[in-house]
Amino acid sequence: MRKVFVSMAVLVVMAMPMVAMAEDALGEAKALLKQETLESSRKALDISLKVVQQQPKSFEANWVVAKAYRMTGDESKRANVPNWKALCKDYGKKGMTYAEKAVAIDPNKVDGHFWYACSVGTYSDGVSILTALKEGLKDKTQTGLETSYKMDKMYNDAGPVLALGRFWSVLPWPLKDKKKAVTYLEEFQKYFPNKPEGQVYLGAAYLDVKEKDKARAVLTKAAASNDKYYSSMAKDLLNDM
User: Fold this and answer.
1) Region label for 210, one of left (φ > 0), alpha (ψ between -120 and 50) or beta (otherwise)
2) What is the distance between the alpha carbons of residues 235 and 227, in angstroms, rounded to a whole number?
3) Going by C-beta distance under 8 Å and a sequence separation of 6 or more, which residues neighbour residue 237?
4) Predicted local confidence at residue 18, as pLDDT
5) Peptide bond into 174 cis (omega under 30)
6) How far apart are CA 46 and CA 205, in angstroms?
7) What is the per-residue DSSP string for 116-132?
8) Three-point CA angle 58, 35, 31, nearest 5°
9) Around Cβ 172, how many Cβ atoms within 10 Å?
10) Does pLDDT of 5 surpass 60?
11) What is the pLDDT of residues 119-161, one digit of tens each?
């Protein structure tokens, strides 16, 4: 019996460095994802995939992989890489899978719910919103976003607030809800008034409800920003007014 206890103690001691290494690796991946570039997202994905392969039941590892897949797809679209639609389709689908695992492991934390919904968005970029709707992803996405909002609406820089606004804005008729879109995006604007992404989305939502003066004001700010992607979107919307 004593030998059994000794063996178990040895196993625990041996496992501790592995856990610490995994935590350090995930910390590095998270730091890379904050840089919000294609290169940093790819590196974060490589690192977090290695961790989740070693610890498939880790809540932390699964949601970080989901985020890394989502952001790599999103940054591929922003960089306009030649095969960005195929990447968004593939990475969005994989992000959904890992996020669902995270939710199954711990449904009481916001991370899995939020990155699942965001991954659906990336997948939709690759296959089209209509295709995603035909596959029954609307209700799952809405549930993920609304759950995230209730749990912690300020998560990921008020990500659930921004995502809900965009969600209701881009859905086709009759699912689209223009008023809800404006409400959520105005809320986000209160928290982050100088973020070009929020300005562009709010501007587009204002145009949907025929508030051209309000749309012009926020889109002009976005057009003057240093963010080339959203600056370009803002200028296109202004030109179409």
Assistant:
1) left
2) 12
3) 200, 203, 204, 207, 215, 219
4) 53
5) yes
6) 36
7) HHHHHHHHHHHH-HHHH
8) 35
9) 9
10) no
11) 999 999 999 999 999 999 999 999 999 999 999 999 999 999 9
